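FW: tagging you since you asked about this chain on Friday. Here's the raw sequence from the shared folder, copied in full. Didn't touch anything.
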Amino acid sequence: MVEKDKTYICDPCGIEVKVTKEGAGTLVCCGEEMEETEEKE
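HL: got it, structure written out here
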């Protein structure tokens, strides 16, 4: 499950995604599951 206001990153390409609406499932990019990361300010 992805949680609202969390940031996820794709290790292979480095893209970051910020979740604006919570939902079931996982985020996938470059064929791999994205990992939750601390938001950069």
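FW: The beta strands are 7-9, 16-18, 28-29, 32-33, 35-37.
HL: agreed, and The chain has no helices and five strands.
FW: great, closing this out.
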